[in-house]
Write a structure and sequence with these properties.
The protein is mainly β. It has one domain. Helices cover 2% and strands 30% of the residues. The strands form 4 sheets. The protein has a 5-stranded antiparallel beta sheet. It is elongated. The two termini are 47 Å apart.
Length: 209
């Protein structure tokens, strides 16, 4: 997979930065997720409903039950492309990568939204040269999420029923940060200024007939 934002060839759809040195583009795909865990669980809780209004119907059989469902997702951060503010300025090149002069990865206990990766590991490449940094030398924040739904169907004759739902997204109110600013030059380089949604709660009702 290639991302146009990291291509540095003379055409915006160029596949590599330097066709004479393909090693510059040997790197993780921007879709690489080395660790992923997902789980989904549904509990049917047989209490609190009393007698179903239509014991023989499908909805009637469910009318006296509560259901609780949860989805958990945990995954590694995805790779991030690093560029620099000034371009090659030659032969139509529109995007420039900086030079890689150190290890951009910080220890986990040193990573913060104000300093997500080692910005000192990058140096601006000279004009008319192709920076030595690879396609995706930095990895963004990991992602953790737990969603919860509580549901109940209430039957009231025949196959008619109302389904009531309480849904909570990001139940633990985990802060999932966005990608770090990855353009060398601006003061924001290496910082994170965005995040995904906090906890969201919604109520819903559905009429079955």
């Amino acid at each position: 997979m290639f991302d146009a934002s990291i291509l540095t060839g003379p055409l915006t759809n160029a596949a590599v930065a330097d066709s004479h040195n393909l090693e510059r583009d040997r790197d993780y795909s921007e879709g690489d997720i080395p660790h992923y865990f997902g789980a989904s669980v549904v509990w049917d809780l047989p209490f609190g409903g009393g007698r179903a209004s239509n014991p023989g119907g499908v909805l009637g059989a469910l009318a006296k039950d509560w259901s609780v469902a949860t989805v958990m997702t945990m995954q590694s951060g995805v790779p991030v492309a690093v560029t620099q503010a000034n371009s090659l300025g030659y032969a139509g090149f529109t995007t420039q990568r900086p030079n890689l002069v150190g290890d951009p990865k910080l220890p986990a206990d040193e990573r913060t939204p104000a300093h997500w990766f080692n910005t000192a590991a990058f140096a601006a490449a000279n004009q008319f040269t192709i920076g030595s940094a690879s396609r995706n030398p930095v990895r963004g924040p990991s992602y953790h999420d737990v969603d919860l739904a509580v549901m109940r169907r209430v039957g009231f004759g025949g196959e008619r029923a109302i389904e009531l739902r309480l849904e909570v997204f990001n139940l633990m109110n985990t802060t999932n940060f966005g990608a770090p600013a990855a353009q060398l030059g601006p003061a924001s380089f290496g910082t994170i200024t965005t995040a995904l949604d906090p906890r969201v709660v919604q109520l819903a009702a559905k009429f079955w007939f």
